Amino acid sequence: LTANRMKSAIVALGACLVLVAGPASAHPVPFSFLDLHVGSAEVEVTLVAHIFDVAHDLQIAPPEQLLDPSVLAGQDAAIRRMLASRVHLLVDGQPLAPPEWSPVEPLVERQSLRMRATYPLQGAPGVVSMDAMMFPYDPQHQTFINVYEREGLRLQSILDAGKTRMDYFPGSRQGVAA
Q: What is the pTM of this model?
């Protein structure tokens, strides 16, 4: 083969590969977020999940539909039921009763959904534990947890397929160091 024929063959092969390649479908942001505001009488939780993950688990395509208020309103109960079932708060080793979660809000700029709940407490907690596996279908998915106490960020943690539980010790040096 001559050099020109070799170049032509390589260009033709490259063009064929481009033509037969399917569209890439990558998960844009494999993260969810849980913010816990720990007080002496309650723990307020805010959950933010990406529309891609929620749509995957509820079999909604395309995921962007979930940012449409009319579509979101029709899926609200299913989304709250699914996500709430994956978040478990324990205080002093005892699971707390599932709270009523707020209606789901679209966060268009983040392509995410947000919902909130308040867990009432019987008294000041000794240890607050969060057990969560938000999207089991995705082994790369991570849930970032931020724990706030007395208006300050006290702990940041990440839950994933290998670590699904986080413990926080409120009001103590151990809590801040955890």
A: 0.81
